[in-house]
Structures
1.
Amino acid sequence: MGAFDIKIERLGTDFLLISWPNKISVEISEELLAFEKAITQQFHDFILVSNPAYASLCIHYHREKINFTTIKNKLLEAYRTFVFNRVENKKYWEIPVCYDPELGPDFLACCEQKMLTPETFISLHTEPYYRIYFIGFLPGFLYLGGLNQQLFIPRKATPRPKVPKGAVGIAGSQTGIYPQASPGGWQLIGQTKVSLFDADQQPPTLFQAGDYIKFTAISRADFAKASHLPVLKNRRSDG
Amino acid sequence: MGKLEFIKPGLFTSLQDQGRKTGRHWGLPQGGAMDRWSARRANLKINNAPGLPVLEMTGTGPTLLCHTSGQLALAGAEMAVFKNEINIHPYGIINFKKGDILKFGITKGGFRTYISIKNGFITKKLFESVSPVAGISASMRFKKGEMLYFNDSPALPETNARLKKLTLFPEAPIKMIPGPEYHLLTRAQQTFLTHTRFTIAPNATRMAYPLLPNAPTLKNTFSLLTSPVVPGVVQLTPDGQLIVLMRDAQTTGGYPRVLVVTETGMNQLGQMRGGDTFFFGYESA
């Protein structure tokens, strides 16, 4: 049996939403992702595609084959009999980032605002393994959890008309990477060559919800010859 | 292989189908025809499978130079069609031959008209759909000089058998159901949603239709975690702006989802443009 009170409701004509308690927690996220995997296997005839967020899961179901009430009851029954095995299949990735002020135009101002030396700022940003809670908003955009509180910085008052692909930024309690060039208001502290979404590859991204990433600092010279691929690390023993 | 050339691209012309059924977990938008019902009708008129790609024309249609012969049909908003500057009947099957110039006019009684082509357009798919994706596809719409390819087909007899005026949706409320955060609204806000004549803002796009006027703002602000959104979700921003997410919407969002428009309502909205007005109405059980 699942560990939480979940709720299932319609989200328009083609979709339904399964909601867990409304908070960011690794425990909820892990159970949610495991349940998503279980039901997409069990009900692959009825489920076209699903996408998770922090504490809810959206399912695009095949409404010509099954109606909402029937699939809702099947999913609730599946949750009642669900056994969450903490299987260690998540991956740990390293993403090299260059924190050169030319590539991270807000880096020095952020250091100043937080009264941190550039070295301390970088060590705080590269220290944690960030959990990928889910991918959303833009193709390949990773919602990461685990930013050190000392690095919480509000977004810029005026967004930039164009932020380059691969820009690494901070907005409030979030850190993230722009998967494509777009307008944006994040504080830009560096840049990576790692590709977050490549439409010509199958799958288009190597990252999955539930994986962990860590940033590593590289020099300007190393950035110039850096790879588009992230570095897969050995599984950490403490999981 | 059949070929058509854009002499003029029209206001916003793109190939669309019934939308992407994959890739949401990578953040890929659903896309697809803004009025999926009319897109299917255009295909059925010419005996195509209903889900084949169609050309979505918006407001003003393109002018096409025909490099080969073929047959097409229209559905959706009413639209005048000129073949070599002669006004032709738009409701049947339209035959064209090499050298013809087809000019598609201005939409009437709706905002989008769909062209189906016998045996279907030939086009590259992006994750199982032809619908362009912002930032990934080279362009979201056709430009002057671009080509459209389609499968050759033997000429069909020019027929009046299907000569029937297209009927769009009657003027009716946009059907919706309460969204996941509806219960967090005040009674005054809930009443506002069902008793206001809303106007679609001028900056309405395939991604989102902002609405006017603003709703009474929330007394108790509540924080919503970033959560999944789908086409049809009506978001309420902290300053009271209501936004209907349309077919090209993002996959997650952080604003309360106060309503969700039904599929029929989405097709109706797809035929509306900035300045058009409507009421929301509950979907009958």
2.
Amino acid sequence: MAKYYLRLAHLYGDLLNTYSDVGNIIALRYYAKQMNADIAVEVISIDNQFNPNDFDLALFGGGQDYEQLVVSRDLPNKKDGLARFINDNKPMLAICGGYQLLGHYYIGANGEKIPGLGILDHYTLSQDNNRFIGDITIKNPETGQEYHGFENHNGRTFLGKDEQPLGMVVTGHGNNGEDHTEGAIYKSTYCSYFHGPILTRNGEIAKTLLLRALKNKYPDADFSNQEALKVKPTF
Amino acid sequence: MSIRSSFAEFAGRSSYWFLHTFMHGGSSLPGKLTLKLDPNILQSFSQKYDLVIITGTNGKTLTTALSVRVLREKYDQVLTNPTGSNMEQGIVTTFITAPRAKKKGLAVLEVDEANVPIVCRYITPKAFVFTNIFRDQMDRYGEIYTTYKKILRGVKLAPKATIIANGDEQLFHSKDLPNPIIYYGFNHEHHPAFNAPANTDGLLCPKCQHILRYHMRTYAGLGDYFCPHCGFKRPELTYSVTKLDKLTPTNSTFEIDGHQYTIGIGGLYNIYNALAAYSLGRFMGVAPEQIKHAFESDERVFGRQEIINVDGKQVTIILVKNPVGLNQVLDMIETDPQPFSFAFLLNANYADGIDTSWIWDGNFEKLATHQIPQYMTGGERYKDITTRLTMAGIDNVWHEPDLTKVVDKIKQMPTKHVYILASYTAMLQLRKLLAEKEYIKKGGMD
């Protein structure tokens, strides 16, 4: 039994599971163990309520067009809870479709505008007969950390003014192929198009999310050992 | 047959003879040449053959091979295409190089999903066999629904053809079609209602978009599904597996409709392939005893999982290309009663899938519960697969990025049984090395 205990909401984990996002949970558990923490995972899907008080972490993955459309119709039921979770500075990782759905809207496969949650201030356009596919490397200007991933998306996402990019593109396409940004950070919500999955190759991001969750939940505990954890390169 | 078709066929046959005799090759080029000369060439074969199309994501090749064996119990002339020749050019080559028949023959063809409408445009099939539809990591942006729609474009051109479909696959029950449909599936267990694991593809009810539940699940989303919201459920099965008797990595004994059969290959997924071949056989009038004879008379049909002797080690090399297949392979090797070592060779070339994320859908955690004395990772992306094993709690791993050294490492494995899972190009590279060292025959890939 670990000393600390975190509860993770896997948002629509039974519908948004196309891109091996489950690997991010495996990575979170792997690093959590090294930080003396256990993680309990619960899938929150259509027909379930999302209560932000029940969770310390959230993962919002990507899926096929059809499943994402079904998810988008269910989002209004969870909007208030998710907004509170995010604005309370609770850590969330949103990948690909999940990233797009946190924003105002994205354009579906048939050109239709699919509304998102609008909790984050970005929007996503499409591109004709093209996808950004391939290995990608970005660098976060503040931390200097480099992140490695695999991108595979048709959407072109444009960030709002309250959002910072996860990194600037070193090689690859990034959010939209134009402004050299990739992903988004808003409070403790981390968004990206990275597969790989992202946390399996970039343990530093997993560490950041876990530290945030631990400090939120155990405000009086001393996490200096956890902060000192060395993340070994895996890629 | 028109003069144009005759000439095109002649040209194709000649080029095949030339390539085959002098170049030891030639499977798609003759078809390509023939198609150039006569784009409608396939039509000219519609009078000469009754056609059965076998398609789906996994299991096409073995289902086709088994079906041919089953049908040859009753029919004299059964034509089929070799593995990998399942697109238009390869299919044309198959027809033009077939021995000339005096009476109408039967063609049982494995057809790539996207090529089903192309073939149906020229030849109206008598029957379709659908195996399953899973996400293939090769083209993950092609969704399972899109894949099924492609197949249906072909079905639309043959509304009278009988569909023999896997009833455990909800997609095959999701659209109303005018065709006669025969469903096959598993009926060996019945449990109180439960949910499939979250990380399963295609769990939405196609009628009302709620999450499907199950009374029995074999693997992935396959099983006795139902929708608790609208009542949509698995259709009645005409042929079903009623009992699983004994499963090992090399043999499966099971019952279809109460009769026992054995096939010389492991893996639950291969029982589906046998069931599909059985169902087609029964539809075509082959008797159960004849089918039993076809399954059990010659094991070479299961050649894909040959065991290679490497200086006393019994090495099984298994191609893995998508999460569903990977998990089935992990399930299968787990049935080995002997201790074994485990290797995974991962490349990320186009033919392997350039995104290696899919390995994270593999349930390697289950391996950690076995006493596997030695693991090995290799290939260009050995780091990715090593990380996967590490995060599954596995740490006794040799790393061998250089595949040329893998063969020596195999010999040092502490167990007699060694399983090597490999992505496509890694498998080809390893087989080439084994051929150079004469552990297998050169060019031994089908």
